[in-house]
């Protein structure tokens, strides 16, 4: 029978200790350390106490060095991660690998809400320009205004005159459309082609959950923003 390292207890004993009855009432833990670990995992989005307990049980069965490597990787990510000074994408350096890539088309900038959307678009392998991360959307209902987003740095990037096209790749929601409308007015004084990704994405959806084929077609079939206004 497999034992939990350093506890000298069968692993299935601990699972029985947190069985069905345990979940119907308050959880009882044989160790304060396990309870603290479960509570810590349960703070993650989409992780409840039951899933958190399974993760803790899994770590107890792993070598101590494996758990150490995991904790060190998370801590290093959190303390050493940087945000690109140009586009605000997550980066290991002051300038991200996309902005510093000489093979990228610097005349095209794709505006996204967060870095997860960059990952989604990059996975399509149909875009070779640069990005600008707003880190949110204008949302009056949530008290989020333009001054709380990375809009001023976007305007500063337009001053060089190197950018010729802006692609609005924001979620097709009310907040997304509000942000697109605001940005199009802000950038109207520059000689730019302002486009929006084609609306093959359902209204109310989120970009990071769109399949790669649909997203790739949306990038390839982008339309002038004026056309989008006329069709809505």
- Judged by helices, strands and strand pairing, the structural class is alpha/beta
CATH top level label of the largest domain: Alpha Beta
Strand content: 5-15%
Give, in order, the helices and strands: EEHHHHHEEEHEHEHEHEH
Calculate the terminal CA-CA distance, rounded to whole Å: 65 Å
- Topology, number of strands: 9
CATH level-3 fold name of the largest domain? Dna Topoisomerase Vi A Subunit, Chain: A, domain 2
Q: Which CATH-level-2 architecture of the largest domain?
A: 3-Layer(aba) Sandwich
Low-pLDDT parts are 19-25
- Average per-residue pLDDT, rounded, comes to 85
Q: What best-fitting shape do the alpha-carbon axes yield? A: elongated
Helix content: 40-55%
Main β-sheet: number of strands, strand sense, barrel status?
Answer: 5 strands, mixed
C-alpha Rg (nearest Å): 23 Å
Secondary structure topology:
Blueprint: E1 3-4, E2 9-10, H1 11-17, H2 20-24, H3 32-41, H4 49-61, H5 64-80, E3 82-83, E4 90-91, E5 105-112, H6 115-122, E6 129-133, H7 152-158, E7 165-168, H8 174-186, E8 193-196, H9 212-220, E9 223-224, H10 225-230
Question: What does this molecule look like?
Answer:
- The chain has 232 residues and is an alpha/beta fold.
- It has 2 domains: 78 residues, RecR Domain 1 (Helicase, Ruva Protein, domain 3), CATH 1.10.8.420; 130 residues, Dna Topoisomerase Vi A Subunit, Chain: A, domain 2.
- The chain contains 10 helices and 9 strands.
- The strands form 3 sheets. A 5-stranded mixed β-sheet has the order 6-5-7-8-9. Strands 1-2 form a two-stranded antiparallel sheet.
- The protein is elongated, with a radius of gyration of 23 Å.
């Amino acid at each position: 029978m497999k034992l939990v390292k350093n506890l000298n207890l069968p692993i299935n004993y601990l699972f029985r200790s947190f069985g069905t009855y345990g979940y119907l009432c308050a959880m009882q833990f044989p160790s304060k350390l396990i309870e603290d670990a479960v509570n810590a995992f349960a703070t993650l989005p989409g992780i409840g106490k039951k899933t958190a307990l399974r993760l803790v049980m899994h770590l107890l069965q792993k070598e101590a060095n494996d758990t150490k490597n995991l904790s060190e990787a998370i801590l290093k990510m959190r303390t050493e991660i940087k945000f690109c000074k140009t586009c605000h994408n997550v980066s290991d350096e002051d300038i991200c690998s996309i902005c510093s890539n000489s093979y990228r088309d610097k005349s095209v900038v794709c505006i996204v809400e967060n870095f997860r959307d960059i990952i989604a678009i990059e996975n399509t392998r149909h875009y070779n320009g640069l990005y600008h991360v707003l880190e949110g959307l204008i949302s009056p209902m949530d008290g989020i205004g333009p001054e709380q987003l990375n809009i001023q740095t976007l305007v500063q990037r337009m001053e060089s005159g190197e950018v010729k096209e802006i692609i609005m790749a924001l979620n097709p929601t009310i907040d997304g459309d509000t942000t697109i409308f605001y940005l199009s007015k802000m950038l109207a004084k520059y000689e730019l082609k302002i486009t929006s990704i084609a609306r093959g994405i359902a209204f109310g959806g989120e970009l990071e959950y769109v399949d790669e084929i649909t997203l790739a077609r949306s990038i390839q079939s982008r339309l002038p923003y004026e056309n989008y206004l006329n069709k809505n």
